[in-house]
Fold Orotidine 5'-phosphate decarboxylase.
Amino acid sequence: MDKSLILALDFTDKKEVFQFLNRFEDEKLFVKVGMELFYQEGPSIIYDLKEKGHDIFLDLKLHDIPNTVKGAMKGLARLGCDLVNVHAAGGKEMMEAALEGLEAGTPAGKNRPSCIAVTQLTSTSEEQMQEEQLIRVPMEESVLHYAALTKKAGLDGVVCSTFEAKSIRQLLGYSFLSVVPGIRLQLDDIQDQKRVATPAYAKSEGASAIVVGRPITKSSNPLEKYIEFKQSWEGAHQ
Ligand SMILES: O=c1ccn([C@@H]2O[C@H](COP(=O)(O)O)[C@@H](O)[C@H]2O)c(=O)[nH]1
């Protein structure tokens, strides 16, 4: 299975998800289940996608006190997803608690899900970050700060934009994951995303994987569009 393109299944229910996935026939995908779908369907959507052989990023972006996050992660570890996440802004202690929960909840003989932390959302511009969060440093500095904190807490990587991926790799090493949403082909509508790049550029800047949703899910030909995104990624060098 190609793990470099994570397909965001931002649908309202299971019926929509499986109608959409039918277009991909038997292809095994790396899919992302976010809040919209998980809050409607609960754990059964994870079991159903697993049964079809897909890898799963459960993108719930946990951010709460350490004890609550630990308990939640203990439960999520039992679902069998491959990747989960938190907000780095929850702090080092919260991220360490997330890992403890995952380790405690992972069934014997199974690998614990990888865990990454959101640094700054790709829908946030530097200006918004500075004005709304009162973070008075450049975007790259804030993202690198959160990425270093995430590594100190023992997590496996971060969610960031293309524009910080290279510095993260230089500072924190090749094996620390940078999962990058905010991905569009040249003529795509960027919608609510602010820090946006093509798959080829994300790869050339050192992204470990990209996340793509609406440009594929809302396309009149999703399979063709998925292939275009993959070709853009595969055509670039890291
Ligand atoms: O910083 C972040 C973190 C998560 N996301 C998620 O990725 C997809 C992107 O969807 P598009 O339709 O390709 O914009 C979406 O599920 C977000 O929740 C992100 O965009 N940025």
In short: The radius of gyration is 17 Å. The first helix runs from residue 14 to 21. The longest strand covers residues 55-62. The mean pLDDT is 97.
